[in-house]
C-alpha cells in the first residue's frame, strides 16, 4: 500500500504538515539522545564518544531491514520511494566540506537546529553560518554548476551499482555496522575519557 | 561478558534478519506475471463473470462493482450498461484510467461487444499483477440475449431455468425503469442485435479455450 503519498492515500498537500510533525519528534529524540551537545558529536572524530556512530548506524540498519521486509510483503513499494539522484564528484566535494564543517562547528545541520532550539549560542552562530553557506552557494551556483552536475548516475542504488541483490547488500552492511560497533567500543576503551 | 549480553542479543537478531533478506527471493525484478502463468489462467474460467451475476449486483446497487466499457466512445454513447465508465481498450494502461482501475476496493468488470477486447485488456491487467479484474462472459451480445431477449425456457427445461428466466425479466423491468414493455428500440442501439446472437456468442469463448491451451 505504501508509500502513502505517492500511492494516493494521503493528499500531497499534507506533506509539509507531516514533515513538520515528524521533524518535531526527530528533534525531540535527537535532543534526548544528547545530540544537541557539540562535544558529544565531535567525540566521534576524537575517539572518546561513539554515540553518534552507534545511533545512526542502528537507525540505518533498522530502517533498512524494516523497509526491505515491508517491500517483500508489499506493504510498501520501494520503487516509488523518492531518493535524490547521485552526482559523484559533487558528493565527494560536498562530503568533504560538510565533514570539515562538522568537525569545526560540532554540529550537522539537524543537530545544529536542535541545539539552537534549546538555546545554545554556538549553535546560533553555526546556523547563521549554515544559511550564509546556502546563500553563497546559491549565488555562486553558475560557477560550480559544471562540477555540481558532472558524473551524474541518476537514481542509482548501491546494490545496483555493485551488481548484487538488495538483500545481500543489506546483510553485508549489517556486518559492517556490527564490526563498527565492536571497533568503536574497543577504541573508546583505550582513549582517555573526556568529561563534558 | 554479562554486561554485553543485551548487545550480543540485539546484534544476533539483526544479523539473522539480514540473513533472511539474503535468502528471500528478489522480488523487484519480477514485477510482471509470467507468460506461463497467464497461459495457465487462460485455460480456466475464473476470469469470467456471468451476465446474471453482474445483473444481480447492478440491481443490488453493489458499490464495489465497476463496469468498464472497452468500446469506442461513440458506441458507449449509443448504449452502455448502467453506471459503466468508458475506457477504450487502447486506454487501459493510461494514467487517466488508474483512478478507476487501480483501486483495490473495486471489482472491475470489463465488457465489450463480444468479449474479444475484454480478453485482451484482462491479459494486460493480469500481466501488471492486477487481480481484481474480470470479464463479462459473452460481452454485450450475451447481455442483450440474456436480459433483453430473454427467451422463455422449454417446458422440459430444468427447474432453475424458470427461476433464471423470471429473474432476467425482473432485471429487464428494473433496468428499463418500470413495467414498460420491452420494445425493439431498446435493442436497436446495440450493434447488430441480429436475429442470431444465439449462435455466435456462446461459441467465441469456447473457441478461445483450446487456442490458449495450445499456446502453452
In a few lines, what is going on in this structure?
Chain A is mainly alpha-helical and 196 residues long. Chain A contains nine helices and two strands.
Give a topology summary.
The complex is a heterodimer of chains A (196) and B (216).
Chain A: H1 15-32, H2 38-46, H3 51-72, E1 86-87, H4 88-105, H5 109-117, H6 121-139, H7 141-149, E2 152-154, H8 158-162, H9 166-190
Antiparallel strand pairs in A: 1-2
Chain B: H1 5-23, H2 35-42, E1 48-49, H3 51-59, E2 65-69, H4 73-78, E3 85-86, H5 98-101, E4 107-111, H6 116-127, E5 133-136, H7 139-149, H8 159-175, H9 184-187, H10 197-215
Parallel strand pairs in B: 1-5, 2-3, 2-4, 4-5
Overview of the structural elements:
The complex is a heterodimer of chains A (196) and B (216). Chain A has one domain (13-190). Helices cover 68% and strands 3% of the residues of chain A. Chain A has helices at 15-32, 38-46, 51-72, 88-105, 109-117, 121-139, 141-149, 158-162, 166-190, and strands spanning 86-87, 152-154. A two-stranded antiparallel ribbon of chain A has the order 1-2. In chain A, α5 packs across α6. The mean pLDDT of chain A is 89. Chain B has a domain at 35-144 and 175-205: Oxidized Rhodanese, domain 1 (3-Layer(aba) Sandwich), CATH 3.40.250. A five-stranded parallel beta sheet of chain B has the order 1-5-4-2-3. In chain B, α3 crosses α8 and α7 packs antiparallel against α10. Chain B is elongated, with a radius of gyration of 24 Å. The termini of chain B are far apart. Mean pLDDT of chain B is 78; it is low at 179-184 and 186-216. At the A-B interface, α3 and α9 of A face α1 of B.
Defining key terms:
heterodimer, A: 196 residues, mainly alpha, two-stranded antiparallel sheet, 9 helices, globular, B: 216 residues, alpha/beta, Oxidized Rhodanese, domain 1, five-stranded parallel β-sheet, 10 helices, 5 strands, elongated, disordered C terminus
